[in-house]
Specification:
34% of the residues lie in helices and 24% in strands. The chain contains eleven helices and 13 strands. The two termini are 18 Å apart. It folds into two domains: 3-173, Peroxisomal Thiolase, Chain A, domain 1; 177-325, Peroxisomal Thiolase, Chain A, domain 1 (3-Layer(aba) Sandwich), CATH 3.40.47. The mean pLDDT is 97. The structure holds coenzyme A.
């Protein structure tokens, strides 16, 4: 059986930093509240010229360079995003064109904050079965374009960012050891954008009602997040016959530092084995885990042979976990 590993990683972050103090000028909030309730101090915001696909191509090139591969080596591009350049065509098509990746299979995946782990899981199936040799999985979000800067419950949380991983075959014993992904549509209205789709097409009324922006029930999500992250992480470890103590690094989706801390405690993973960049980057939805991965790989925090557990949850609601040996 072919094993799938991550051969290269890359990220692309907009330069503009938006601090909590900047947001204090827009909505009734404070640096103290945001820091204490979420752990976030600042986040990035894309310039008008930057789009999901342009940043994705940049992140993809960085990941391909680390892997020592060219865009034409790719058999598959999966772009996980809920903030595409436009409804049609897929952002993956635009990325493929921008990279010059020939005519390989390329599609978008909408699983919100769990999207990168959904993407890894799907790409793993392509590679394991021999349908693809090399795949580019991208987590890409420009959520600032979907944020209501009059809604303090959401505009303080989310940020922009993109990161990519190149997947390919690795030696037995390394690579993805176990993965599990889930969706529970019963909670679909916990985090959603009401208008702009077939249910409520764009109109003057939907724009005036600010219904093209993200709406969130933060409290309800918090509880679902902690429970599902704990359960799926524990199950994936069990599948691989690994105890929490054997993990070298736990990379949770960067949603809220209090969620990370609650899950860490329940799984009994020491603080020093948990990665967090939420204070600098905020919640970048599907880009959150691959940005962390790239930071860890490039800083030497991840070394060959390390066991990495990645777990995420998000709108849908979706959740999942992937265990990988580097
Ligand atoms: C959103 C979240 C940070 C809110 O934190 P919380 O501790 O649950 O806060 P609550 O929603 O209970 O609100 C507490 C109070 O703070 C207020 N508040 C909300 N946002 C605020 C802000 N940015 N600044 C100041 N006060 C704020 C609320 O209005 C409420 O005021 P009230 O008590 O007078 O009604 C938290 O629920 C959360 O992170 N949930 C998960 C969301 C998530 O992860 N979403 C992404 C999924 S990938």
């Amino acid at each position: 059986m072919i094993q799938t590993g991550i051969l290269g990683t890359g990220r692309a972050l907009p330069e503009k930093v938006v601090t909590n103090f900047d947001l204090e000028k827009l909505v009734d909030t404070s640096d103290k509240w945001i820091t204490e309730r979420t752990g976030i101090k600042e986040r990035r915001q894309a310039s008008p010229e930057e789009t999901t696909s342009t940043l994705s191509a940049q992140a993809g090139r960085n990941a391909l360079e680390m892997a020592g591969l060219s865009p034409l080596d790719l058999d598959l591009i999966i772009c996980s995003t809920i903030s595409p350049d436009m409804p049609l065509p897929s952002t993956a098509s635009l990325i493929q064109r921008e990279l010059g990746a020939g005519t390989c299979c390329a599609f978008d995946m909408a699983a919100a904050c769990s999207g990168f782990l959904f993407g890894l899981t799907v790409a793993d199936q392509f590679i394991k079965t021999g349908k693809a040799k090399y795949a580019l999985v991208i987590g890409a979000e420009l959520l600032s374009r979907y944020l209501d800067y009059q809604d303090r419950a959401t505009c303080v949380i989310f940020g922009d960012g993109v990161a990519a991983s190149v997947l390919g075959p690795v030696n037995t014993g390394a690579g993805i050891l176990a993965s599990e992904v889930h969706t529970n549509g019963t909670f679909a209205d916990h985090l959603f954008i009401p208008a702009g789709g077939t249910a409520r097409p764009a109109s003057c009324e939907t724009v005036q009602a600010r219904d093209h922006f993200i709406k969130m029930r933060g409290n309800e999500l918090f509880k679902v997040a902690v429970r599902s992250l704990e359960e799926v992480s524990a199950r994936v470890l069990e599948q691989a016959g690994i105890s929490p103590g054997e993990i070298d690094l736990f990379i949770p989706h960067q949603a809220n530092q209090r969620i990370t801390e609650a899950v860490r405690e329940r799984l009994n993973i020491p603080v020093e084995k948990v990665y967090s960049n939420i204070s600098r980057i905020g919640n970048t939805s599907s880009a959150s885990i691959p940005i962390c991965l790239d930071e860890c790989v490039r800083s030497g925090r991840i070394k060959k042979g390390d066991l990495i557990l990645m777990s995420a949850f998000g709108a849908g609601v979706t959740w999942g976990s992937v265990l990988i040996r580097w």
